Structure formats: structure tokens, C-alpha cells
Amino acid sequence: MVEINKKLCVFIHFWEKPYFPKHVEIFIKELTRFFDEVILISNDRPIQSSKNVSHPNVRLVFVRNEGYDLGMFYKALQTIKMEDYSQIACINDSNILFNSLAPVFDWAEKQQLDFWGLIDCYQKPWFSTHEDSYHIQSHFLVFNKKAIDLMPVFFKSIEMEKIFQEKELKNVRQAVINKWEIGLTQFLKKRGLHIGSFIDSKEFSKNNDIKKKTNLSHSHYFRLIKAGYPLIKKKVIFDTKFLKCLLRPKIRWDNMMFEYGNPDWDIVGLVEDFRKLKRNM
Question: How far apart are CA 136 and CA 119, in angstroms?
């Protein structure tokens, strides 16, 4: 039997403008270091240029925006044979990558995991149908062979067509959170797969004296970054709900990126791009 050792990353990107922004360029370039193939899947729109994301191992796919990240990931998988891969990642652009993913993948290589991600969470939304709310946050998911083999069963169990047919966006969002964000981890956990995350939120909270159960990547992003977390949520930059975080002294998102960003990357260009986008909002 031929050993399968090919790795694929599906990178999900939504953008209304006719180009690929700086943060996507940086993210894609870094992902090509760890995956044999990258599918950059985005919402269908006219594109003036894709030169900044061009790479021999990167394939562009444009689709109708349905079912949020779940829908795009599902559509990307329809273009491949999943059994040809030993690892498939699902990563989206809701975060900005400002430092190398090497420590993350070095950590993963030392684990015996079937399914893993960057960070886990125990938050339970009011509409959740799950008793156990533990889940790997869906912005960075990695499926190894046992998890890949179960994906067709999972997609069948959540009835993808019903999600695509739903017209009320609030219902779609709740279904995706319940069935995908939380449901996927619970589905794999119940089947005995080994699951873990680079940042264990319970351990991190204990070590940092965080009492309240919370989404760390929202409320304590500055502590995560200091601990080696290489991402920052776009919401931290753009969402006014995060004003109380932004007003805390000496933890501005741009200062954090300058201090902890990769010195070999164009962090200045990355920050300036987001400053410009924020001014134009």
C-alpha cells in the first residue's frame, strides 16, 4: 500500500473589493511552507489582480457565498479527493497572521492528535443544542487521517443542503455555529478521536488568573500574543464593541503587532493597510 503523506490547506477568504489584501498575501505565503497544496477559496467577484497571492502550490477557487466558512470549506472539498490527503486544514481570514506558524506546527508534530487547532473554547451560545460546549475554534482547524475519513459522515449528518437553502442569515449563522463551530468537535470527540489545541484555554486562564469563562482571542488577545499566539482577530481592530480593549494602556493592536510581529515580514505594510481600511470604514 502506498503511504499517503500529502497535506492540503483550504484558506477561506471573504472580501468585497477586486483584489487580495496584504494580510491574505502574508497568510498564504506562510501556509505554503507547511502544506503541499493551498486552495484559496473566496466569494465570486471580479478580480483586477491576484499576482500577490500567486504561487505554484496555490489554487484559486471562487464560489457563491453560502453557509459562511462551512459552506466554502464544503465546496472546496468537492473539488478534491479527500482520501488522497493525510492532512487537511481549514483556515479562515478572520484573523491577521503577524508571526510564523512554525512553533504551532512544531508543537503539533509532537502530539498524537487526529484533530487539532490553535485554540479551544468552552463558551455556549443560548441556541446551542449541545450539552458539552467544548470546541476547537473554527478559524484554524487541522484534520489528520482519522478525522478526514469521518468528514463525509459529518457533512451528511448536518444536512448541508438545508443550510444552503436557508434564506434567513441569522438562522444560517446560528446553524453554522451550532453544527460546525461546536458540533464538529463534539462529533469527532464522541467517536473517540484525539483532539487538542496549541492554546489550552483552561490552562491558559488558570496560569493568567482569568476567572471568567470567555473567548480568549477576543477579550485577552494581548495576553495570548505575549504568550506566542501568532494571530490577532480583525474584530479587535474594526469592531466598536472592542473599544474597552483598545483603550487599555499599552496594548493597542498596532503596537502589539510591531512588538511581536516577525522582524523579517513587512509588518509596517500590514499595519498601514489596516489603518487605511479602518479610516475608510
Answer: 6
